[in-house]
Amino acid sequence: VRRARPVEKNVSNGVRLKEKVKEWQSHLPSPSLLSPSFPGADSSSPAGLAVGERRPTDVPFDAETSFGQALGYYRKRDYLKALELCQKALPKLSNPARAYHLLGCIYADQGEYEKSKEPLEKALEYDSLLFDAYFKLGIVCIKLKKPEEAIANLKKTVFLSPDFALAHFYLANLYRDFKEDNKARREYENTLKALNSNSKAELDEFGGGFAKETLTRTCQIYLERLRKKGVKIRKS
């Protein structure tokens, strides 16, 4: 027959067990620390992060960086990626003029002239001194067969940037089409003057395949034709 353990020993073991449980509980976090209502915590935030706190890998969106990347892709003629980044940056830029300008250029360079006109006009609403936006809008208006609008925009281009050779050249062609020979002569001469003082970087960015020598020779040919019509040509 198994003998029962002394009652005193069982009681002693029970007391020690209760003391051990209390010791474990003392190391547990307070229930309030686990509650979403704990000050500084947010039930919608990832666990362990305070309101507004980000994980080290969470990079905040930077509209200026996104726009710069869009510009880089545009220059590489990756229009799809440029369009995506430009549209993403546009609503968050403090001054969206350049982004609207870029948006118009992306559409225009793909032949979507009707679609490009509105963002270019929007760019000029935000910044009326963007001479290159006036230039692009002038070219778009030529493509859309709106010569009067084209002339108005190209005149603003050369007013803001007198050495913009290509703007003078397209303006000369428009005046020639309207048979305004003296104005055409003036703008061809202004083109040659601008080409002599500037133009390499401009032609690289806006030339659309024009080389300086080609543009110079074209102006000289048209000036000679005007001279034969009796228009007085200045000596270069």
What's the SSE blueprint?
Blueprint (H helix, E strand, L loop, with lengths): L6 H20 L4 H4 L28 H13 L3 H11 L7 H13 L3 H14 L4 H13 L3 H14 L4 H13 L3 H17 L2 H7 L5 H17 L8
List keywords for this structure.
about 240 residues, Serine Threonine Protein Phosphatase 5, Tetratricopeptide repeat
Provide structural commentary:
The termini are far apart. The chain is built from twelve helices and no strands. The chain has 236 residues and is mainly alpha-helical. Helix content is 66%, strand content 0%. It folds into two domains: 61-161, Serine Threonine Protein Phosphatase 5, Tetratricopeptide repeat; 163-236. Helix 4 (79-89) runs antiparallel to helix 5 (97-109). It has helices at residues 7-26, 31-34, 63-75, 79-89, 97-109, 113-126, 131-143, 147-160, 165-177, 181-197, 200-206, 212-228.
